[in-house]
Structures are given as C-alpha cells and as structure tokens.
Specification:
By secondary structure, this protein is α/β, with parallel strands linked by helices. The chain has 6 helices and 6 strands. Helices cover 34% and strands 20% of the residues. The protein has a 6-stranded mixed beta sheet with strand order 4-3-2-1-5-6. A hairpin with a 2-residue loop joins strand 1 and strand 2.
Length: 217
Amino acid sequence: MVTKLPKWSQNYRADASRLTYAKIQAASRSKVFIAIDLEWDESNPSQILEVGLAILDLRPRKLHPKRTPPSTWDIRPRHIIISENRDVHNSKYVRSNKFGFKFGKSYFTRDAKARETVQAVLDRYEPDEVVLVGHLMGNDLRRLEEWGVVLDEEIDVLDTAGLERVYMSRVNGRKVSLEGMCEELDVPYYRSDKLHNAGNDAFFTMAAFLEMCVVSD
C-alpha cells in the first residue's frame, strides 16, 4: 500500500520558498538581519510599552573570523522601555515581563525618542541590505506603521513562524508560538519565563532564525 503524501497548500508552498530564499540571503553574507518585537498595551494597542531589537550582521568583516558559522554571540540585542508607560503592565493575555531583559541593559526612553531610535537603526544600512525578521509579526508590522516607523519598499521581511513549520516538515500544519518554536529548535538560553520581554523575544527570534537559515561556508 502506497501512502499518499499530502498536497502542499499554497501558503505552505510560499513558506517553503521563503525558507529557501532566507538561506540564500544568509549564505550571500551581504545582509543585515534585524529581528524586531513590540509589546503594547492590551487595552490600547496604539500605546507601545517596549521595543526589542536583535541584529545579526553577516556582511564581510562584520563577524569575528573564529565565529564561522556565526553563533548567538554574534547577535546584538537591544531592549527599550517607553518611559511614559513604565508603570503600564499587561496581564490579561500575557504576563508582563518588562523588567526581565536577560541579554544586556534595558534603556528607558520617551516614546518619540524610541521611535527615532528604531528608525535610525533601519536607516543605518542600505535598504537592499536589510532583512527584517519577526515571529507571527503581522501585528508588529501594523504597530510599526501606526507608530510612524517607515519601512523602505526594498526591505525584505521574513516571518519565522512560516519558516519553522517548513523547517520541521509540518506539511500544511499550524504555525506555533514563539515558545513552541524555541522548544522545537532547542534555542540557546531559552526558558519560558524569559518570554514576553520584547528584547528577549527579539533575541530568541533571531536565534531561531540562525538555527534554521544560517549555515557554514
């Protein structure tokens, strides 16, 4: 008896193409991958509480020679807490972990300055060098646009939720949470109690991307 393999859905096929594309872009050693994660007020989504950034610069001479292939040590994370909203904490859907950044120092910055900082990070590089990475990032992209952050049309966007289900060969399967992805991939330094901090989540997203898409020369 021949077992019939499931036919790939259009969405799954698109994710498979994106995983191949992501690996090619990483192998080109010409891109700067920037993971971004936002935390916002559950009762007022326009109110940003935290911003997490994690940068993996794979361009020539940006990595230490002894770190090929690159490791999580090459990821540069950053965590910003919006000072006006310092005392606003989510609790209904996710438990706030605002003060639990584990990969460096958190910076307290006013909303306008935080927005300028995110824009400056994106504008630091040529648009065709930048690949934005996130996990289930549709809402994050909407919040960025509403916040006033401008993404150049040449900036590529990769969602690790779609990449992960192809990497794990869950044909037409569901996309898992960041927690599920970290557990599936055994992401370094991950613990569930570190989640829901924007800086930690950005780091874990980039670490998962590194595991799936960045291979040795």
